[in-house]
Design a protein that fits this description.
CATH class of the largest domain: Mainly Alpha
Strand order of the largest sheet: 1-6-7-5
Number of strands: 10
CATH topology of the largest domain: Helicase, Ruva Protein, domain 3
Strand content: 15-25%
Bound molecules: zinc ion
Number of helices: 6
Length: 274
């Protein structure tokens, strides 16, 4: 599933393409992609509007329109958003296409069909579930070592589960939780509340570093993530533990171990992470 670096990469590319473009029309090939509006209503609301900006919150993309409304898109497992020439044929998994005034289309492809679109009018209180309760952005100033300490304080849940909880920290998924914990030398199964001040400081730095490093490489493509231009990320070549079960730890050579934690496949070095 695309996580913060992948969604942010898409956001930056759409931000370069969409603002100022006027919407000519909408084609909805899979109506259940739309969660709170019918295809006909969506077309009616969008036609003639211009895109104003593209924002991100956690793993959600927020496409702002010039009338104050927003399209709120979650890519989930396999969603892709690309801007292509309208003459290009739809793919087998094209679900929604928004026609732009420059002869191109914003296309949403989604093989597994878990991706979601919400239309939210100006000042509306109908935000999609998950967005209302979203936690702190880990690359923002608000995410300080003290903020991480407050998030972990007193919690018996595994620190990995706390990192994955979107209500506490936004945008971290399975890949970057495992990678951040490896960099910090912390076992993913440790109760979050048991981390020392020094460990919390290391984890805070590791979270920011791994997200920043991945962003610089255009995100991670494990299965099918592609960016707004249809190209894969490069950070998969730099992963230390995720997807490397049985392979030697890059620091100590001990085989990386995969186990189930918080319901997710979890990768760690039994030697380097305590
Ligand atoms: Zn190791």
């Amino acid at each position: 599933m695309p996580e913060l670096p992948e969604v942010e990469t898409v956001r930056r590319q759409l931000e370069a393409e969409l603002p100022g473009r006027r919407i000519r029309g909408v084609r909805v090939l899979l109506p259940r992609t739309l969660k709170n509006i019918t295809p006909g209503e969506l077309e009616e609301r969008l036609k003639g509007r211009r895109f104003a900006s593209v924002e991100r919150r956690g793993k959600f993309l927020l496409l702002r329109l010039d009338d104050g409304a927003s399209l709120i898109i979650h890519l989930r497992m396999t969603g892709r958003l690309t801007v292509v020439d309208a003459a290009e044929p739809d793919g087998p998994y094209t679900r929604v296409a928004v026609a732009l005034d420059d002869g191109r289309e914003l296309r949403f492809h989604d093989m597994r069909t878990f991706g979601t679109w919400h239309y939210v009018g100006e000042g509306a209180d109908s935000l999609p579930p998950g967005l209302r309760s979203m936690g702190v952005e880990p690359l923002s100033d608000a995410f300080s070592p003290d903020a991480l300490a407050a998030i972990c304080a007193g919690r018996r849940a595994p620190v990995k589960a706390v990192l994955l909880d979107q209500r506490r920290i936004a945008g971290i998924g399975n890949i970057y939780a495992d990678e951040a914990l490896f960099r910090a030398g912390i076992d993913p199964g440790r109760p979050a509340g048991s981390l020392t001040e020094e460990e919390l400081a290391r984890l805070h730095k590791s979270i920011r570093d791994v997200l920043t490093d991945s962003l610089a490489k255009g995100g991670t493509t494990v299965r099918d993530y592609v960016n707004g231009r249809g190209a894969p990320g490069e950070f998969q070549r730099y992963l230390d533990v995720y997807g490397r079960a049985g392979e030697p730890c890059r620091r100590c050579g001990t085989p990386i171990v995969r186990r189930k934690l918080a319901g997710r496949g979890t990768h760690a070095c039994p030697q380097c992470q305590r």
